[in-house]
Amino acid sequence: MAVTEPATTALSGAHEGILRRQSLRESAARTYARSLPIVPVRARGLTIEGADGRRYLDCLSGAGTLALGHNHPVVLEAIRKVLDSGAPLQVLDLATPVKDAFTTELFATLPRQLADTARIQFCGPAGTDAVEAALTLVRTATGRTGMLAFTGAYHGMTAGALAVSGGARDVRVTRLPYPHNYRCPYGVGGERGAELAARWTENLLDDPKSGVPAPAGMILEPVQGEGGVHPAPDAWMRRMREITASRSIPLIADEVQTGVGRTGTFWAVEHSGVVPDVMVLSKAIGGSLPLAVIVYRDGLDTWKPGAHAGTFRGNQLAMAAGAATLAHVRENRLADRAAVLGARMLGQLQGLAAEHPCVGDVRGRGLMIGVELVDPEREDLGSGDPPPPDPALAAVVQQECLRRGLIVELGGRHSSVVRLLPPLTLTDEQAVAVLDRLADAVAAAARAPHPRADPEAGARHRAGTGPAH
Prior knowledge:
This is Diaminobutyrate--2-oxoglutarate transaminase. The protein has helices at residues 5-25, 32-35, 61-64, 73-85, 97-109, 112-115, 127-142, 159-163, 190-206, 234-246, 316-331, 334-355, 391-403, 428-447, 455-462, and strands at residues 40-44, 47-50, 55-58, 118-122, 147-150, 173-176, 217-220, 223-224, 230-231, 251-254, 278-281, 293-297, 359-365, 368-373, 406-407, 409-411, 417-420.
């Protein structure tokens, strides 16, 4: 302790200065740093230690990047092995033993019908670049330009990815309704709401007067994450697969945040048994380091050399860390663990909703969980609709969580959904601690006076969620 205490004291003293210099030097577009004013200096598993000496339970996990939590031993060992070997760290798209091992491990986890004939494209290091690659791929293969995308979607911050994200305006993108149980656009929810959404999609494509030309592809998230943690019903997913397959429309599944065991299966499409034509993968596949790929059926592989490239697509450390992560999740059945623990946590959060009217809805799949905060005082009792979202209350809950040493993210259309993305290594004891701190935070926020719901404030916050991809 005598060796580390002076350094700790010095860091604690520098904490405020680091935050002040960040606010002066970094752009107005920074996001997480605004609501999470901490200076991480050490981390292991679920826990982050700040420069001020405080410890936090991290349920943000790098926006879902850290499947095994911070600095997992198998990840560190894989990175050290590459560093000690003298291997090159960046090789563009050249073949290497590290890359071969990563690709082999990745293909072993894919849905069998896709893996048997799959091709892989290594992209730039962010998920948004992989989305761009997927859009280029299907447009090249079909010779068409239009895309089908869904309300509430989030696919990244580059031009094409933004175009297919919810709220964007692009004449080449047709918006389709994504099924919601809590705020169903048709006012019915459940299986009936999902069926109506599917029928609308089918009718739009088949009606010669709909104004929608044959699209190059459909892109969807099996669980909308940034959009507020909305799991797609399995039956609806199968309908989307049937609709696209029968019309020769490639189906793109964006598994950037849902992949690698997060939702209780290795890939979220496995819940429904759907095999997409293209899968967009990033975040956890790099084992905490930047890596993004698309995998797709070989019949789409018609683009020319250089049609999609990127200088940093040969990150050997990320491939080594990613292969180690994929293998650890697979060998230790962590997806199954996420399914069991996630269901238990959802059940306990339902009890929180019963105690607090401001908790409008609890939803999720596996360890991808959302708690929607609402303003029950503004409920229109005659309408039958849920109370309006309360982004101001959600922001207070997030800050109350931080005061209790719990890091959570906000999402949803109005940033009124508290999101939990803990690592798949979460223990039973840690899950209890997370839920206890969240429950205390909700109770404290419900008691405290705060500005009432401001949808415009939520929209302003929502516009800054870009770093997630």
